[in-house]
Amino acid sequence: MKVLAAMSGGVDSAVAAARAAEAGHDVTGIHLALSRNPASYRSGARGCCTIEDSNDARRAADVIGIPFYVWDLSERFHEDVVEDFMDEYAAGRTPNPCLRCNEKIKFAAVLDRALALGFDAVATGHYAQLRTGADGLIEMHRAVDHGKDQSYVLGVLDQQQLAHSLFPLGDTPKSEVREEAARRGLLVADKPDSHDICFVADGDNAGWLREKLGDRAPNHGGAIVDEATGQEVGRHDGTYGFTIGQRKGLRIGRPAPDGKPRFVLDIEPVSGTVTVGPRERLAVHRLSGTKPRWCGTVPSVLHGSVQLRAHGEELPATVTVAGEQVDVELHAPAYGIAPGQAAVVYDGTRVVGSATIVSTVR
């Protein structure tokens, strides 16, 4: 097969490209330039898409012995991922930009261009496994290394995208991937993994949003209100600096009557009100989602599980689907679940699909 290997400049994508080439595929490496003004150097494990990352990807391609190109998708990335991120926070929701990037960029814009250029598949360093099911459809399953499993952020991929995807690392623990990189002479073998949101290199989401959104109404300033008493217990600079379940950085002047910490329970961007209260008020038993993305056959009722955060636990649940509406009844409560997050549905280790959370019931 003709395979396009997306190479971020990290160890995972480098080994994935090497494995694809070793398997006999005709591999071409590409690095996605996603930043309009890429920094020269990374800051430890923060961020990605720097000039240094591009150079690391090029050196890895040279070692593997495959052609290498840089594709500039910075405008598309800014429109589909960065702007969406800002709009969601401005509306009081909590998005996951990695899911949006996989949906809109890596497995849409890149895959569409790859197929148009005559490639058969796109290979990435994601930790997930693909199998052919009894019905002939391509199934996506959790990676062998559950600590590195990335099936959650791939839960937006549909059958057509999965049919043209390769995840060569899904059957290998991360420690063995680093050892393999060293054996292959790849200089990125010990390079730190990137963490946090790639376009917020210092990890300060609130500070980044404050700079980008500025005084954009209606998010500039407002009251922090205690749910039980209705009293104002603090002020804030913008609702975009908060997410449901947040405890730190609330800058609340007075303690709760029982002395226990308060958590963000609700965000109302129009009035600028942030409501806080005790942790037990964060317990969610049911949630609803919309804009579903199904990896294969659409279920009607599924007794399986859901994952609600990229590194969250798997929660037993009953999922009911009616058109664009996805209702989830959790068998045990979850805490700190916010509209805008993704609910990714599993049947055992198989990813069924995902939906964007629009409401929760406590």
Q: Briefly, what CATH class of the largest domain?
A: Alpha Beta
The biggest sheet amounts to: 6 strands, antiparallel, barrel
> Order of strands side by side in the largest beta sheet?
12-15-14-13-16-17
Query: Gap between N and C termini, in Å?
Result: 50 Å
The helicity comes to 10-25%
CATH topology of the largest domain: Rossmann fold
Rg on CA atoms, Å = 21 Å
Order of helices and strands: EHEHEHHEEEHEHHEEEEEEEEEE
Estimate the strand proportion.
Answer: 25-35%
Could you tell me the number of beta strands? 17
Structural class: alpha/beta
What overall form do the CA principal axes indicate?
Answer: globular
- How many domain modules? 3
Low-confidence spans: none
Number of H/I helices:
7
- Any guess at the CATH architecture of the largest domain? 3-Layer(aba) Sandwich
Binding site for ATP: 6-13, 32, 125
Disulfide bonds: 101-198
Family: Belongs to the MnmA/TRMU family.
Active site: 101, 198
